[in-house]
Amino acid sequence: MNKPLLKKICTVSYTVLITTVCTVPFVGSLFKWGSQSTENRTMLSMPKLLETTEDSTKMNMEYTTELADYYSEHFGFRQELVTANAVLNETLFARSTNDKTTIGKDGWYYLNETLDDYTGASALSDRGIYRLKKTLDLMNQYSNESNITMLFFSAPNKNSIYPEFMPWHIRRSTESGNLDRLSALFSRDPNSDYYIDMKSRLLELKETESRDIYLKNDSHWNELGALAAYNAMQDNFNSRIDKFDYMPIAVSDTHITEAYEAGDLTNTLYPSIQKTDLKYDLGIKKNFSADRPLTDLMAEISTTCQGRYYNEICYRDSFFNALININSNAFAKVRYTRAFPYDMTAAKSGGYNIAVVEIAERNLPKILDNAPIMGAIGTDVPTGSAHVNGGQECNFVDDGESLKLSGELGNWADLKNDSNIYIELRDSNGRSFCYEAFPICEGDSYNDNGFSITISKYSLVNDEYEAYIHVVNKDTAQYTELLFNQ
Length: 486
Prior knowledge:
Structural class: alpha/beta
Helix content: 25-40%
């Protein structure tokens, strides 16, 4: 075969190949072949060239951009092409094509949002860890004063329990992470029985359990890990509540069968393959009833169970999904809420006598985004506090029932890692009312200088007060006037 003919054949073949590759997705999109998404989000709708309102009809100037975005989500065989690209990248380069997923070793996948904890990029300051514990302590104190037993734990990131399967090129921090530092701070406090070090419990289980306790293709624990968390909660309540309605469940008491289900990490990475994870059906009988089918686990859920005594409100995230069935069997009434910031008043007003607060390790700094919704806790005015001139600017909101004060401490404050912040109100008769503020800068988790407090007006006697702010640590105590910005 002569060279001109060979060149012509190659050119024609290349043209046909490229034309086919470009045409097949377009033709497929006309018939909606392979264009259905498995992603957990709302897909774009076909844009309209003309936008019609009650008053007029006008051209959609963003039509071409919107059409391009629509086509990128709906072209034919999209799922198959996305999967093929992901498989090639994983096979050839051990690289993920999805910004949600990190490909680990031996078929393990990890959530990218946990990498900052793993590498130490999300580390709070020592003051930040103290602020985190102080916020939880105030929530617990508020619960106790409302005759509610509170419990808090953080569900560990998967790479905190199984770091050995992380890819070699992602270096683990040699410093302790936020969760370990928080646990260490709790361990030094004799009044912290409301805290469960869930990471230690799960690492101990990992050493004795031959089966995995986290899912390979998912970011969460499996049923065995969830059962360990449930038993840890039951043990905690049983040790703190006299005659608690104790209901532990041993693995030996269950009838474990294996099942397979797609994981959240590989669902979007390989949409047309649907990789499945080994899961365990514990065979626990469902004794509760729910106000809605347990299919939309993002929503608020309420359950009731006959023959139980305690009522529980559970502030939770997706890690608690695997706990809902077994936990609902243990309480007369449970409300599961994902609302944030935590509304601690809902526990009091809803008639609950148990409050569980659960949050994933990667989201621990989120607790410091905004102060929990609850009235401030009264306390004694700090003694020996030295007056500092200059005053402290403060945002002020009066909603008719409460006063919301917040701000960022100025240079006058001798702020230490263990400093606490108090708001004092003095009336014309010389009486003082003092409340401890959350060490939170609204909207900024990593700002260590903030304070935020909500004071119920029902706890006040008069309408007019002079207001002061105290900053107190073990060495010094200072205070200055509050200057309100409305």
